[in-house]
């Protein structure tokens, strides 16, 4: 299937999806779990997301009539239930993102399973029981994680980059991400002089517009991923509004959530091309 054009609904040329990894402080808490940091800089910077950034993104999505996919660690649901309720009430998809934003490659089998179970329980305590897709923290996966997702009835994954359209991997539909369409590589800066300063939002939107044009030519999936503590800042929201408004006017685009894209793949492309880790299977 590598050189075959992917078929989208209604003969659309490509698909567009907008996703938010609503992880707030959890990546920092996971990294520092064995220490006792006494600084507040990064924690407060990340807390901007659940305090303010998330509501700005929700307002933007409502204004443009876009249903998005939010991937949320369980700890965020426990700490900020009002924000998670607001996402759900606005009609957006909610997916799993670990419990404390754990990197699955740093866990054993039992710990990965515990993160899936605890993350789901925490979200369902706020929004009620439902089937949810999965996006792995830090976009890393292991064979055991795919096996556990199937064991627990998780319908799809959205963490890998093996194609620029949906595909099968380890028996699950994969809704692929890519680093080029993640806001963190352009904007993430937590101080201390480490790393490059954030890019101008106009530069980022121009880069994303060019990638959209390329993906449209080849019939791919344009899946943006933002973080509300990063893209919830004023100038970045304005830049996002310009880009999304332009894409919404394109009649050749199928707009969908990650769950809808996985559902389309499951129904329309079952058995056409399956990937196993380390090689192709029939």
UniProtKB/TrEMBL annotation:
Record-annotated NodB homology domain positions: 39-258
Domain of life: Bacteria
InterPro entries assigned: Glyco_hydro/deAcase_b/a-brl, NODB_dom, PgdA-like
Protein name as it appears in the record: Polysaccharide deacetylase
Species of the source: Paenibacillus baimaensis
């Amino acid at each position: 299937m590598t050189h075959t054009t992917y078929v989208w609904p209604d003969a659309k040329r490509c698909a567009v999806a907008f996703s938010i990894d609503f992880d707030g402080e959890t990546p920092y808490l996971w990294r520092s779990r064995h220490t006792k940091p006494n600084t507040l800089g990064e924690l407060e910077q990340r807390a901007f997301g659940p305090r303010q950034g998330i509501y700005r993104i929700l307002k933007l999505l409502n204004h443009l009539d876009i249903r998005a996919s939010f991937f949320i660690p369980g700890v965020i649901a426990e700490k900020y239930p009002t924000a998670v309720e607001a996402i759900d009430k606005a009609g957006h998809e909610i997916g799993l993102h670990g419990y404390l934003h754990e990197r699955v490659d740093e866990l054993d089998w039992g710990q990965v399973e515990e993160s899936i179970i605890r993350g789901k329980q925490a979200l369902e305590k706020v929004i009620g029981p439902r089937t949810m897709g999965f996006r792995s923290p830090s976009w890393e996966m292991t064979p055991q994680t795919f096996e556990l997702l199937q064991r627990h009835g998780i319908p799809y994954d959205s963490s890998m980059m093996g194609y620029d359209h949906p595909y099968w991997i380890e028996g699950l539909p994969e809704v692929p991400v890519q680093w080029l369409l993640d806001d963190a590589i352009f904007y993430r800066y937590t101080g201390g002089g480490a790393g490059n300063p954030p890019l101008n939002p106009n530069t980022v939107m121009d880069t994303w517009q060019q990638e959209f044009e390329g993906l449209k030519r080849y019939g791919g999936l344009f899946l943006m991923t933002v973080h509300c503590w990063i893209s919830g800042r004023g100038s970045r929201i304005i830049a996002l509004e310009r880009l999304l408004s332009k894409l919404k006017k394109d009649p050749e685009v199928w707009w969908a959530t990650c769950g809808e894209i996985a559902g389309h793949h499951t129904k329309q492309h079952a058995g056409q091309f399956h990937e196993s880790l380390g090689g192709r299977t029939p």
